[in-house]
Automatic annotation (TrEMBL):
Superkingdom of source: Eukaryota
Organism name: Cyprinus carpio carpio
Signal sequence region: 1-19
Name under which the protein is recorded: Ig-like domain-containing protein
GO cellular component: plasma membrane
CDD domains: Ig
SMART domains, per database record: IG, IGc2
Residues covered by the Ig-like domain: 22-108, 113-198, 209-293, 296-382
Localization terms from the record: Cell membrane
Classification via Pfam families: Ig_3 (PF13927)
Length: 383
């Protein structure tokens, strides 16, 4: 009887040691990226009995998407050229003979603020009449919204929701007229919308500065020169100056009149540039968003692959950089590609049945309109 009891205890201990269900973790747990960028989540098995099978699913049960790639063992999920519909949760599911474990990662899309003011100005109102100005904003994270009158930093009382701010203005005289500014701000940037109110049949008592830029969004390639043009109206004539949000102006810059020129731009020069028009009556700002395109940086999901003859080979090439990016696979040296090799526009090399002669080093070259980058991966086929 004691022998049977001991055997049962030993069996339970062995089952505990050798029969563990999987335990997994994911890095990073949360990620926040801009549209068009690339992000990867790594699912790691920290303990549990082998073999462990990994798979990824959306938490909303929607398909992963055509721009979502998985590593050969399912551990790495990579989203290239991120789109709005990629936002949300991703669940890594680990399964072995003893059970199943899940862990979740979350992706957030960062978007700079955008502002739309209705009705659009200029608006003419009669003395004694009221008008309601509505400001609608978008952006992630959610921007703060405020109304001010040009020439004053005092925030006006408005009715606000998460995405709108309504301002009611009663114009009794020319002093109540002017330009009203809606400002939306988050850590992703700043956006403004303006509307001018005029008293019908009269002239404005004061002419505040008004800044405007020729283009609010500019794109450049690393090494190029960029010129931003700013114009200002008002009486007395405003003085124009330039600055950069949360950073000094690039050291290779020139200001000529209302124009700012940046020479030999790099990725670090991307950001929001501010044109400030100032006079004795106050100031006005206009904004230019600059994005500097960069050449690709190529990577692979695996640096080395070991397989047997007859196995299928999948080599995935990925690249960070400005899109669109084109991929091309070749073999290093004089060896030619397997006759059955297939490549896709997304950088995937497939060989349905490997042969011993497929052993060697493979090269992926990623190219965009800026430049190119290459990465090597080794394939070993053993009988």
């Amino acid at each position: 009887m004691k022998v049977q009891t001991a055997a049962l205890v030993l069996s339970a201990v062995l089952h505990t040691v050798w029969g563990q269900s999987p335990v997994v973790s994911v890095q990073p747990r949360t990620a926040a990226v801009k549209l068009g960028e690339t992000v990867s989540f790594h699912c790691r098995v920290t303990s549990g009995s082998q073999p462990v099978q990994l798979e990824w699913k959306r938490t909303n049960n929607q398909p992963l998407g055509d721009n979502v790639k998985l590593g050969p063992d399912g551990a790495v999920l990579t989203i290239t050229n991120v789109r709005l519909r990629n936002q949300g949760g991703y669940r890594c599911i680990a399964t072995n003979a003893q059970g199943k474990e899940t862990t979740t990662a979350s992706l957030t899309i960062r978007q700079p603020p955008k502002v739309r003011v209705t009705p659009s100005g200029p608006l003419s109102v009669r003395a004694g009449e009221s008008v309601t100005l509505e400001c609608s904003v978008t952006g992630k994270p959610r921007p703060s919204i405020s109304w001010t009158k040009q020439g004053s930093d005092t925030e006006l009382v408005s009715t606000t929701t998460d995405t709108t701010a309504s301002l009611q203005v009663t114009v009794m005289s020319a002093e109540d007229a002017g330009t009203f500014v809606c400002r939306a701000q988050s850590r992703e940037g700043l956006a403004e919308g303006r509307v001018e109110l005029r008293v019908e049949g009269g002239a404005s008592a004061r002419v505040f500065p008004q800044a405007s830029v020729t283009k609010t969004d500019l794109t450049a390639v690393e090494g190029q020169s960029v010129t931003m043009h700013c114009h200002a109206t008002g009486s007395p004539t405003p003085v124009i100056s330039w600055s950069k949000l949360r950073a000094p102006l690039p050291w290779q810059h020139k200001v000529n009149g209302g124009s700012l020129t940046l020479n030999n731009v790099g990725r670090q020069d991307s950001g929001q540039y501010i044109c400030n028009a100032t006079s004795a009556l106050g100031f006005s700002e206009a904004y230019v968003q600059l994005e500097v395109d960069s050449p690709p940086y190529a990577t692979t999901l695996t640096e080395e692959t070991v397989a047997r003859p007859g196995d299928a080979l999948h080599l995935q090439c990925l690249a960070h950089g400005s899109h669109p990016i084109r991929f091309r696979w070749t073999r290093v040296g004089r060896a030619s590609m397997s006759p059955g090799a297939e490549t896709t526009k997304d950088g995937l090399l497939k060989i349905a049945k490997l042969k011993l002669t497929d052993s060697g080093t493979y090269k992926c070259v990623a190219t965009n309109h800026v430049g190119s980058s290459e990465v090597l991966t080794k394939v070993t086929v053993r009988a």
